[in-house]
Amino acid sequence: MDHSHMDHGGHMGHDMPGMGGDGPKCNMNMLFTWDTTDLCIVFPSWHISGTGSLIFSLLAVVLLTAGYEAIREISRRYEAYSKGIMEGSRGRNGGVGRSAEQQMKMIKAVLYAVQVFYSFFIMLLFMTYNGWIMLAVAVGAFVGYLMFSQSSSTKSVACH
């Protein structure tokens, strides 16, 4: 079907939020790059506009990624704690009550959901395909593992 004769002139001025207009222009690369010109990280408001904002953003990415390792360690510790409670209560009459067991399961589920959300956010950071951001994610994982991982890793490296 040929649409070349149709008038689309009435569609001018119908900009979507974040799609041009007067705001910052976000450059989205689909190939690996070191270029930070008009780089937006996850949100249009997280816009790299110069060296200062790049350095601040790289530090923020390192801290965010290190924070993920902290959440993983908190989760591992809570799992060990709840396992100890469950095993210790089996020796006693009646053991842990059903509501306490459900509460522990609910806390584990919340911790897991936070980890999944966090890991997908880190994946979005990595998917900027920007080498500087990718390096900051790796540095943050390194720093976070050194700072927070008291026990061995119980999960493989994946989005969640």
Automatic annotation (TrEMBL):
InterPro entries reported for this sequence: Cop_transporter
GO MF terms, alphabetically ordered: copper ion transmembrane transporter activity
Sorted UniProt keywords: Copper, Copper transport, Ion transport, Membrane, Transmembrane, Transmembrane helix, Transport
CC annotations in GO: membrane
Coiled coil: none
Chief localisation class: membrane
Transmembrane as UniProt keyword: yes
Membrane topology (UniProt): Multi-pass membrane protein
Pfam families: Ctr
Transmembrane residue ranges: 46-68, 109-126, 132-148
Localization per Swiss-Prot or TrEMBL: Membrane
Annotated family: Belongs to the copper transporter (Ctr) (TC 1.A.56) family. SLC31A subfamily.
Protein name stated in the entry: Copper transport protein
Organism (species): Alternaria alternata (Alternaria rot fungus)
